[in-house]
Amino acid sequence: MFMGRTTTYSLLLSTLVTQSPPQFLRLGPTWYHEIPYLPYGWEALNDRGSGTLKHAAMKEVLRDQSLLAPELFDHVPWHLAEYLWNCLERCNKQTMHMWKIMHTVYPEQFRELSPYYCLHAWSPGQPLTQYMDILNDDDIRWRAVLTVGTNFCSATEIAAIPKIKNLVGLDICTQVQNFLFPPSISLANEGQPLQDGFVRGWVESNALQHLRVIRFCNQNQITIATLRALRGLPELQLIVAFNCRNIIPKVDSARDRTRNYPIPMEGWSACRLEWFRKYPWTEEMIDEHLSSLFYLYKKSLQTAESKPSSVDTELPILEFRLQKAQRADYMGKNVKEKGTAAFLFTRSPMELEHDAKNTQCEKTKKREPPESSGRPAKRAIMKERGPVDISKTLNEFF
Fold first, then answer.
1. For residues 170 and 164, is the Cβ–Cβ distance under 8 A?
2. Separation CA 176–CA 330 (nearest Å)
3. Are 341 and 248 in contact (CB under 8 A)?
4. How far apart are CA 15 and CA 339, in angstroms?
5. What does the radius of gyration of the chain's CA atoms come to, in whole angstroms?
6. Model pTM?
7. Mind listing the pLDDT tens digit for each residue in 28-72?
8. Which residue(s) pair with 268 in the sheet?
9. Measured between alpha carbons, how far is residue 96 from residues 33, 85, 93, 358 in Å?
């Protein structure tokens, strides 16, 4: 029995350590925010002195996570991989890099152990496009959720968001000066504000086929044209717009004309949460829609009226936040501040009915064979013409 265990852990060491190319440190976007090394002196001794052979093998494997890659785990059984992940939890060193490796090699087992991982970053260590590459998975082995502050974005980076094929939730926010960040403290450069043209580009790329929830906070350059464009995203179910100055008067004026809510607008049903101030649950509802985007996405899957998800809802979720999204960041001083407003836009019932009819028509057309009249199809034949005499035309010039 002892020899069998020795052989197993020796094989684990030889597979994961000796095959790793010798390099001191692999720099990547995540290593600016997470540390790949085990804590110095962690579990060097126990009550009985030195650790077991299993413990020594584990520490040698996990001493530098940046050296690990999915192919190194091809011959490692799941119970050993689970042991490694639990050890990382014990020393508080679980990383996005290791999470992705585990989900790539052990998709069925690991989704039960860790179905969600979130990495927070207060400022970027690399261009935003490199973080997008980390989130993206063309094979859709996990779902991606992105929160990004425009203070850190360029126009090219905002336009590149559709490269995340597995994106299901998107939060575009701009940090505002408030009691947490007084004017004397510089937040960052102003960055690139979101505009209608960026949103149209996202839709026209036909890449965001699984995006279900999107939230705009303090985006003062987008207009109702953004709502019109977002109708082109087939799975989008909810838009939250907080303090978007060009949208506020349009919705309020529409309400003055109809005196009803929700208000039909550009294929969406619009509702301003402040209209329900007299109800005790309003503040709680505002908090919910300005809280975690992950929470909003999960809630959209539970709504009976929503369109079913085209992505397996059992897949794990990987979230990245560039500029930590807190309620105070969106709200300035408070939601009652004059000029601020929280709007919800959900799919209009008429729009949902129209989409359902179009889907049914497309399915019917695919099932029906093409009509045939029983007559053979005519083939176009060029009409024969005699030789053309151009002498008269030439005589006019010579």
1. no
2. 7
3. yes
4. 61
5. 29
6. 0.77
7. 788 888 999 998 888 776 666 666 888 888 989 999 999 999 999
8. 265, 347
9. 10, 12, 10, 41
